[in-house]
Amino acid sequence: MYTPQQYKNENLAEIKKFIVANSFGILVTQVDAKPWATHIPLELDTDYNGNDILVGHIAKANPQWNYFKEDAQVLCIFNGPHSYVSSSWYKEEEVPTWNYIAVHVYGTLKVQTEEALLASLHKLVDKYEANSKEPVSSREMSAKTMRQIKGVVGFEIKIEDIQATYKLSQGREADHPKIIAELEETEDSGSKAIATCMRNNLT
Fold first, then answer.
1. Residues in a beta bridge with 41
2. In whole angstroms, what is the distance from residue 203 CA to residue 86 CA?
3. Contact 178, 89 (CB under 8 A)
4. Less Cβ crowding at N or C end of the chain, within 10 Å?
5. In Å, how far are 42, 66, 70, 191, 197 from 63, measured between CA atoms?
6. Could you tell me which residues come within 8 angstroms of residue 56 by beta carbon, excluding any fewer than 6 positions away?
7. What's the pLDDT at 202?
């Protein structure tokens, strides 16, 4: 991912927090020598050696999994908030731009055993049911219902490289108060989120 130096974020703890909060990502591999992307939850975890990994699963009906090769390198994309920034908010004339946060993770993929897949599915359901009014548990579902696991393929990705872009009007610090104020006045949730990120970046 092309990232000018001033937009690079190399704070690993902050990036990991971002991945956890924005875990519905995009898995990119090659299928028939063409890029193929699937939108799925990609959960940050660690393996038995303490290495950072991403864990996910896709349907066997998705042809992407037929091209999973042991130790094949893949790309996972995580998108955060983004917003148009009008140059009318600047003190001096300049072109408009777009502020955004994005993280690209590169790593090698390994298909999970059915036992490991089941364990990861339990963790996934527990995470997202935690705040439900009436949480369900996959551990309590019937064998008939859980047979659907036969229709998915689980995988782990050992993280080898992380590239993070936090484009938050760096280099225009004098304009930040105006940009933040304008973003906060919009009805767009992404714009408001970018305003919050910019405000936090100032402190």
1. 24
2. 23
3. yes
4. C
5. 18, 6, 16, 36, 38
6. 27, 40, 41, 42, 43, 154, 155, 157
7. 57
What is the per-residue pLDDT across 38-64, written as a single tens digit (0 to 9) for each?
999 999 999 989 999 999 999 999 999
76-29-61 Cα angle (round to 5): 105
Domain boundaries, the chain: 5-87+97-171
**Regions in the chain scoring below 50 on pLDDT:** 203
What pTM was estimated for this model as a whole? 0.92
Tell me if 155 sits within 8 A of 111, measured CB to CB: yes
Superfamily in which the 5-87+97-171 domain is placed by CATH:
Electron Transport, Fmn-binding Protein; Chain A (2.30.110.10)
> In the prediction, which pLDDT does 203 show?
41
| Strand order across the beta sheet in which 43-46 lies | 34-41, 24-31, 72-85, 97-111, 152-167, 52-59, 43-46
pLDDT at 146: 84
